[in-house]
Amino acid sequence: MTNYKESSPINLNPPSRSKNVFSDIRNFLINKPQKPTLIKFESEENRKDYNRRVLQRVGIDVNKNFVLNVHKIGVNAPVGYIFNELLNWNGDSTCWPNHVAKVERINNEIENIEILPFGLKKYPFGLKKSFLGMDLIPLFKLHSIRIKSTPDAFDFDNARYLLYDCTGGYPIGIFVMYVRSPIEEMGEIAQSQLIFAVSFNFYGKEKEANKLVNKIWESVHNRVTSNVLNRVKQLSEWRLQKMANDMEYL
Q: What is residue 150's predicted lDDT score, i.e. its pLDDT?
């Protein structure tokens, strides 16, 4: 398994705000992330073992969701601070491609979220409600399974997370945003570790005709997720540095 060590922040500017679909595509898909985030595994058994540990940590049935794409980045900010940043996830975030896949909270609550393609709430031009058997509006529906805002007394890693059941289009399964303290044995030196994990239907019960679509979607997901994590890191570290600088002038 590949681990990435994190250094102190260099870019102390906030993430640039996308203005339209084209800037979203440039910022989140075309742009090469400053730091790689996808955890790569030496073997399939190594992948399965890591997946089991992730799922057990958040209380998910390992037998139903055993294939995950896991991204991780070190952030020089406190765990609680980053978790509060995740709680602000909405359609105005500079860390998410909201012109391509707009985040909309249901009743303004973080527990239930819809991801709308290009911000569309209904199908335009009289189009049908599905494409090749996939519902596109909303693209995803996220329903909270658990939001853990306070670590248990016995937690060794000060973990907090948002765990969702994800349906509609791709991916199908679970989505977790997880932040914890570093683990020295894993070569982690940043103040916190931010992890995004998604279970896909790429492996196992899939149709031959969908394999190409799945691989393309996986590639898109990995690039976008990596840019999102880099932006959360940049925003969190910039805000903390800005507060520190402001305190110096008081």
A: 92
Q: Give the residue with greater pLDDT, 134 vs 55.
A: 55
Q: Is 158 left (phi over 0), alpha (psi -120 to 50) or beta?
A: left
Domains defined along the chain, listed by start: 21-248 (3.30.530.20)
| 212-221 pLDDT tens trace | 666 777 888 8
Tokens of 48: 């399965």
User: Is the separation of the CB atoms in 50 and 1 below 8 Å?
Assistant: yes
- For the chain, how big is the Rg over CA atoms in Å? 18
| pTM attached to this predicted model | 0.87
Task: Read off the tokens for 7.
Answer: 């250094």
